[in-house]
Amino acid sequence: MTDTPSSPPWYARPDARGWRTDPAPAEVRDFHTGLPGYRPTPLIELPSLAAEFGVGRVFVKDESARLGLPAFKALGATWAIHRALAERAAEGAEPGPVTLIAATDGNHGRAVARTARLLGRRARVFVPRGVHARAVAAIEGEGARVTEVPGSYDDAVLRAAEAAAEPDTLLIQDTALPGYERIPRWIVDGYSTLCAETDEQLTAARAGDGPGLVVVPVGVGSLAQAVVTHYRSRPSDHAPALLSVEPRTAACLLRSLTLGEPVGVTTGETTMAGLNCGTPSSLAWPHLWHGLDAAVAVTDAESARAAADLDALGVSSGPCGAAPLAGLRAALTGRGAADRRSALGLDAHSVVVLLSTEGAAANPHSGASPAAPAC
Asked: How much is the pLDDT for 248?
């Protein structure tokens, strides 16, 4: 007798597709299209995955090469830095050198450092214990001064905030803090370009009325907030299901959704380094609570299998980028799979979009990364 796979950690909210919010600012896309080197990242159709899952079509949004970097983070960093510098000038700040400051576990800090270099600005980036040496070197390679903090990501965020209290500095952080939400919101707005591109590419691929399901990896939830904002600001009769995916060792959002309030969890080790987060973003939480249809958590082994499958199909994806495929597979297999498929509204004609947020080059970890309470 063959053992039936166990059911994954799972949460579902039946009324999420009826919730509505305001869209991201339209000028974000125009800003990005004007940047040197901008081009939409590919949306790749993978018929073999559609056959595996019994749906109409499966597409992967491939973020392995975004504005010269191997992850999607540059979309948020460039827009937020543009807005922050413009506002600083409008408020009458003295012209002169400004140092951009961030805390990071890799991709966000490199995106801030790259943008600073292109603008002729200085950057200082704080990284927590456990960030891979090659990730640190990549940030330093953009000309940033890197400070390694002997503690967690939360400790790095606090050190960055302290450094940003000095004159002629700007904190460009994707984690909201008390009294610090405007720039994190601009970072979320920057991610809306990814969703707008996806819509246009699905239309070009004659994918009906758009996606029936979008699957997004979650750390603190900023990208998921952007996805919820995009798809929950459209007419409800075309609203897709939205599924979040986290590591089982750091499923802070799934735990929070289950309890109905944002809570922290103690994280373990995971190869999904960029998702190793212990507390949902306070800025993202209301959108995720109201607008996500479901949440699932996956193991490192499941993410590794998904990354290998994508690689075999010609898509470069790191462990975080492969998490959506792992999450979809977990949701649609094992005990209770029929109920989970029903909760996601999937049938033989559904169009599914997986957001692969990083290429293999973005995550240099060959093994598990040390636990960190936030991303």
From this structure: 97
Q: What gap in Å lies between CA 187 and CA 174, rounded to an integer?
A: 6
133-140 and 107-119 helices, crossing angle to 10° = 10
- Greatest Cα pair distance in the chain: 74
* 319-331 and 300-312 helices, crossing angle to 10°: 100
156-177 burial: b if 16+ Cβ within 10 Å, else e: bbbbbbebbeeeebbbbbbbbe
Q: Tell me phi and psi for residue 14, to 5 degrees.
A: -70, -20
Distance linking the first and last C-alpha atoms of the chain: 43
pLDDT of residue 188: 98
As a whole number of angstroms, the distance between CA 63 and CA 187 comes to: 17
Cβ–Cβ < 8 Å for 8, 330 = yes
Enumerate the active-site residues. 73, 105
Mean pLDDT, to the nearest integer, of 323-336? 97
* Strand order across the 145-148 sheet: 145-148, 122-127, 99-103, 169-171
H or E element in which residue 296 lies: strand 294-298
DSSP single-letter state for residue 320: H
Per-residue pLDDT of 198-214, as tens digits, reads: 999 999 999 978 999 99
Q: Could you tell me which residues come within 8 angstroms of residue 54 by beta carbon, excluding any fewer than 6 positions away?
A: 332, 346, 348
Strand partners, 71: 358
Quote the CA–CA distance of 204 and 228 in Å, as a whole number.
22
With beta carbons less than 8 A apart as the criterion, state whether 192 and 229 touch.
yes
For residue 360, what are its two tokens? 């293999």
Tokens, residue 330: 């977990």
Q: Which helix (H) or strand (E) holds 61?
A: strand 57-62
Q: What is the DSSP string of 219-257?
A: SSSHHHHHHHHHHTTS-GGGPPEEEEEEEGGG-HHHHHH
d(CA 209, CA 238): 7
The pTM of the full predicted model, rounded to 2 decimals, is 0.93
The C-alpha atoms of residue 170 and residue 101 are separated, in whole angstroms, by 6
Structure-block tokens of residue 60: 């992967």
